[in-house]
């Protein structure tokens, strides 16, 4: 019997979970191919560490290490089109990938909500590349400020737009990082301002109000300014215009908007919800094609936009492909509310366990344990420990980044 080909597009949380679950299934008699535009998985929960000068080792996990046993063929290529009728995907390398089943795990991308100037005059915080750029940008500003005739003015004013989980995480770390840099560059701490901007009436609008309040208190305690009800209207060189307020800054960090990967909209035969996410059935298959599965940020399921959801969906899609091949009945995907663990500055996190939220050092330790648990779930134990310890290394000592 000829082996079926299962193609997974996207080597992030959903794609990796799906490939691992397929590879572990003892019934497997198929070729699993994972095509991703990056040769690594980006562990986004620790992305903020790169911005504050820590090593990307904990965030950048090579796919070759995850799939070192050779059960999954990993290919680095950017898929530019997918023909669901002909069961074929085309990569920017010119390679064509035939499949019997395909899992689209393409994730999401930054959305600027058509705000004028924003794409040109803001920095992003969604990928390792953007986090490294942000780190370099901050160091450059401190160098310029320290230089003869350098002024703090717009250089030491940092503005984070979007007070969701990633904006809050970044804000907490940035306060402490800029304090360390101020000491190092001998710049008075009082010259540094960090503002967190939110369009709605409170920070962390998708979290419980009690959690948001505690975190807000923590951010104020760290010396950060919070502006709510200030939707962004326009960005210009060194200037941002919010509703009723204009600010001068060299650093506008946009953390507010995401939308499904643009490739989804280019694939004929998919149907979408009003957020541009692909509509899937209870088995995570697309409406029109029973051999096409969508998982992660691109799927119109409850709680999408979270790594934990993408992982669960990837695992269920894998099970359903194997069950289809084995002529068994399919598993219904049951959405589950993800738990959260929100670090706010070094050594402090708000972590949900069961019905309670733990704050502070214990919350922080639980967060670290959650990272370790994920690494152990995808890597051999010793490699998982190396990755976990990688987050402690300063960037200048790590193999990935050249010293500044
Ligand atoms: C700063 C930050 C912090 C976060 N923290 C958390 C957290 O603490 N907890 C949590 O649950 N969630 C968190 N998230 C959300 C989480 O990262 C996403 O929900 C998750 O990554 C979605 O998984 P996915 O598999 O859909 O997409 P991704 O993990 O983004 O994977 C998509 C993959 O597809 C690849 N790809 C894209 N286009 C192509 C193409 N054309 N061809 C080939 N490959 C392609 C990408 O390179 C990527 O490898 C965070 C997100 C950010 C930005």
From TrEMBL:
FAD/NAD(P)-binding domain sequence ranges: 6-314
Entry keywords, A to Z: FAD, Flavoprotein, Oxidoreductase
SUPFAM superfamilies, per database record: FAD/NAD(P)-binding domain
Keyword Flavoprotein: yes
InterPro entries: FAD/NAD-bd_sf, FAD/NAD-binding_dom, NADH-Q_oxidoreductase
GO molecular function, one term: NAD(P)H dehydrogenase (quinone) activity
Cofactor(s), names only, from the UniProt record: FAD
Similarity section: Belongs to the NADH dehydrogenase family.
Protein name, as recorded: FAD/NAD(P)-binding domain-containing protein
Originating species: Candidatus Nomurabacteria bacterium RIFCSPLOWO2_01_FULL_36_16
Lineage, highest ranks first: Bacteria, Candidatus Nomuraibacteriota
């Amino acid at each position: 019997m000829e082996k079926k080909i299962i193609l997974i597009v996207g080597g992030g949380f959903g794609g990796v979970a799906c490939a691992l679950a397929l590879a572990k299934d003892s019934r497997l008699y198929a070729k699993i191919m994972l095509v991703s535009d990056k040769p690594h998985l980006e562990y986004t929960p620790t992305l903020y560490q790169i911005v504050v000068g820590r090593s990307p080792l904990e965030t950048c996990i090579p796919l070759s290490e995850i799939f070192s046993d050779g059960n999954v063929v990993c290919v680095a290529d950017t898929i530019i089109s997918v023909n669901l009728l002909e069961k074929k995907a085309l990569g920017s390398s010119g390679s064509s990938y035939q499949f019997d089943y395909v899992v689209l795990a393409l994730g999401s991308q930054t959305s600027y909500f058509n705000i004028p100037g924003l794409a040109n005059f803001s920095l992003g915080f969604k990928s390792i590349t953007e986090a490294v750029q942000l780190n370099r940008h901050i160091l450059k500003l401190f160098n310029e400020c320290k230089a003869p005739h350098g002024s703090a003015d717009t250089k030491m004013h940092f503005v984070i737009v979007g007070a969701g989980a990633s904006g809050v995480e970044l804000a907490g770390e940035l306060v402490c990082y800029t304090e360390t840099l101020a000491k190092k560059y001998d710049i008075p701490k009082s010259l540094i301002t960090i503002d967190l901007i939110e369009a709605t009436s409170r920070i962390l609008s998708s979290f419980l109000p009690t959690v948001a309040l505690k975190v807000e208190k923590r951010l104020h305690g760290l010396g950060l300014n919070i502006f709510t009800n200030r939707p962004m209207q326009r960005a210009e060189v060194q200037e941002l215009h919010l509703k009723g307020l204009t600010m001068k800054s060299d650093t506008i960090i946009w953390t507010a908007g995401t939308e499904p990967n643009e490739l989804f909209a280019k694939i004929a035969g998919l149907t979408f919800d009003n957020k541009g996410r692909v509509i899937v059935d209870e088995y995570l298959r697309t409406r029109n094609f029973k051999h096409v599965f969508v998982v992660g940020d691109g799927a119109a399921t409850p709680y999408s936009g979270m790594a934990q959801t993408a992982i669960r969906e990837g695992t269920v899609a894998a099970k359903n492909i194997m069950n289809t091949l084995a002529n068994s009945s399919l598993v219904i995907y049951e959405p589950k509310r993800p738990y959260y663990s929100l670090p706010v500055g070094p050594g402090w996190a708000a972590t949900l366990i069961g019905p309670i939220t733990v704050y502070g050092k214990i919350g922080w330790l639980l967060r670290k344990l959650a990272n370790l648990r994920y690494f152990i779930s995808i890597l051999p134990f010793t490699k998982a420990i190396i990755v976990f310890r990688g987050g402690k290394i300063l960037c200048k000592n790590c193999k990935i980044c050249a010293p500044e």
